[in-house]
Write a structure and sequence with these properties.
There is one protein chain. By secondary structure, the protein is α+β, with helices and mostly antiparallel strands. The chain has 3 domains: about 80-90 and about 110-205, no CATH class; about 265-485 and about 600-679, no CATH class; about 490-595, Dna Ligase, domain 1 (2-Layer Sandwich). A hairpin with a 5-residue loop joins strand 11 (about 240) and strand 12.
Amino acid sequence: MILAVNTFSVGVDVGGTFTDVVLFDHAERRAIVAKVPSDPSNQSIAFMNALTKVGTKLNDVQRVLHGTTVATNAILEGKGSRVALLTTEGFRDIIEIGRGERSKLYDLKLIKLPPLVPRPARFEVPERTQADGTIGRAIDADGVRAALKAVDPTSFDAWAVCFLHAYANPANEQAAGALLAELAGDTPISISSAVTPEYREYERFSTTVLNAAVAPVMNRYLGAVEDRLDDGGYRHPLLVMHSSGGVMTARAARQLPAATILSGPAGGVAGARAIARDAGIGNIITCDMGGTSTDVALIKDGEIRHTTEGRIAGYPTRIPQVDIVTVGAGGGSIASVTGDTLRVGPESAGARPGPACYGHGGVEPTVTDANLLLNRLNSDDQLSGEIALHPDRAETAVDRLKDVFPDLDTIDLAEGIVHLATVKMAGTIREVSVYRGHDPRDFVLLAYGGAGPMFASELASELGMASVLIPPHPGNLSALGLLVSPLKRDFVRTLVRRLDAMDSSELADAYRDLQTDCEREFEADQLPSQDLEYERSVDVRYIGQSSTLNLKCETDHPDPVALSAEFHSAHEIAFSHAAADEPVELVNVRVSAILPVDPLDISAEAPTDGSASPSGTRPVTFRSKLVDCPVYARDALPVGTELDGPLIVEETGSTSIVWPSDKLRVDEWGNLRVEVGEK
């Protein structure tokens, strides 16, 4: 997808506290970045405010790309739409029974999550599709009308149609959906065979209901954004980031809003991979610390890891997504006391009222308040040029903790808050690395987000990591990542077969069918399907196992025998054992269709001449010691600069802290490379 050289692209990522924007000038090949406060009541307001702040002329813009948390927030806050479920007779309680495993094995007081659809809103129809796809009992109009005779189908905000084994043959679901559309009018309808056509009934039902729950919310939001863009003169499709690391049209996002649950974080990972690739680094762990939470992911040998076993608010989803783990530790995370124990997060002050130091009415101590008291943030500057900081209010908030810890002074408490946040993030990084067979010491920590560079050195030290990379515009990397993300759609087909009983032609036929589906979707968006590139993979397991491993396929006709051998090796790596004599079973066949965009250079143009001179100094607390630190403006650090810590690097949207034991270097791409010393 080639863009005209005299046009602009815009990436807007709406976070819980700030909305980040990047305006990329294709003629000058430069990026203009900014942040504005998010508006939790209406994200489209912050969206347009961000465009205004960077001086966007929408009639000159060829692409607007958007990372959004609308679907995420609707689910997490319990503000999704009222959903009714139409399902196979005898199976309406699947959505409530779920799985037998306990999310917290030893918690004797564990309360099970409430069902996504209450029982009175679950309706059964006589039908049956067999596991092999044969129709045992076809759907009929009288059966659907009889099931709904006691209810007005238009009284619900959305419907989910989930039938047994519909992944194997969607005919009954499609027929029921068509009948329901006649009865429910314009009410959105999500059909499981269209949302996630793969086996495992509970997960398929859950994903479809979640999709239905956020469909009306997303439809209203995208409509508001499109109207505002149209009023401003934008005449191209709005593109929305989805969870698996690509963008899709707003039309597709309306059909599959559940795919946007990790919209913003996925953009950051895409941007991080582009930065690392340019810098010649294959193994990175990303750390995106914003105002509300921290998202981490692992990239090995330049490849982003994906999963289809996600959860949101405790409910499973089967939508393909970047393998990101989130922890409630951000700049706005509240420090509180349980019993006599200090803890940080997951509660957040959010955008409103925000941390106490914002002066917007917040009174609880937060991580940002603690960093301000340690002088790691500049109290004389407005945060992102928008928010004045008030150290006195931060001190008042942190001092509230003295009621429980009277022997600690304000600075001790602030350091404790920062350290607890660091420990929480370190645990999350271990989850994506150590717990999955990777040593974090073999990776570079790539830190971004508004608060990530401030914590990077201490966090790396906690994990024994030797190197940190802080990219250009770290506070806006998620928005920058949107600009390098291709148009992408993911498709799956369940095909349960023993590999030793298959030949490559059966796999080739499955891939051919999926690629036809891919082409159909891109053509529906009036996009060129002839330019598509395909990534193919399979989910496989030992017979008798419930979980699978995903293996990439380099061709559209992979050899089943070779796949079996590859699975044994992958199983050995993942679980430290393999059973080479056991038969291997295929479960799912997957295809991702990708329409690449022309490559963008999102690195910054750091000066190449001169020497680095600090703009001033300020005392910063490190391990209870007050140390004078030189302060540098990032855009005044020439390529090749080498400096010993301690020091501070300031830029729009982020502050980087280099500890006394660290060494800093500016590489040829404008990245800050920190050699981490002992703390």
